[in-house]
Amino acid sequence: MPVLVITGTGTEVGKTVATASVAAAALAAGRTVAVLKAAQTGVGPDEPGDADEVARLAGAVTQAEVARYPEPLAPATAARRAGLQPVRPHEVAEAAAKLATEHDLVLVEGAGGLLVRFDHEGGTLAHAAELLRAPVLVVASAGLGTLNTTELTARELRRRKLELAGVVIGSWPDSPDLASRCNLADLPDVSGAPLLGALPAGAGRLDPADFRAAAPGWLAPRLDGTWDAEAFGAREASPGGL
Known about the structure:
Strand order of the largest sheet: 4-2-6-1-7-8-9
Largest sheet: 7 strands, parallel
Number of strands: 9
Radius of gyration: 17 Å
Helix content: 25-40%
């Protein structure tokens, strides 16, 4: 798995922190890692972006961006409003492929969800994944509403004949409600893919050293971690009964 594409079921689901945890676990396993942000929006030229945040949390990763735009909008819209060239899927694929020649693992982080537009021809992260023939990791929220967005994302990946590597819950609450606890069983069912991890709420606020030490425990062995979905489900899904 030299290239792994990471998308969210929407915005604010914990995609960047999940990317950092995957990077940290891979580094702990002795792998070299690069993180490529396909389209960074909402930051100025000299401000830290998502790839910088991954490096801050995970450690010694190679950071790269294809493009950045100042307004926090969909990449195609942000590019148009800034008078800048949009991101093209082939540019993302070419940048990732080059990094893959020099690293054991390249993590390609999208912007928002799978079908957020990069350009006005309809290019998306899904198109970049197709060009790369890379598996896609979906980061989902824990609570009510996540089943619909996760299943829609999974169906689109299957329609495009892309491999869905699995689902990671981007922020698992300290006191999960009934919907969240039920979703531990339902997310693999609706996605047709395994649950590969659950990050604790507030993980991104940890001291970087603590984050790196803990990250492998949040992720399944496929992602270089030690997390066990069955054991986690048995522990977290039982309070109050289902």
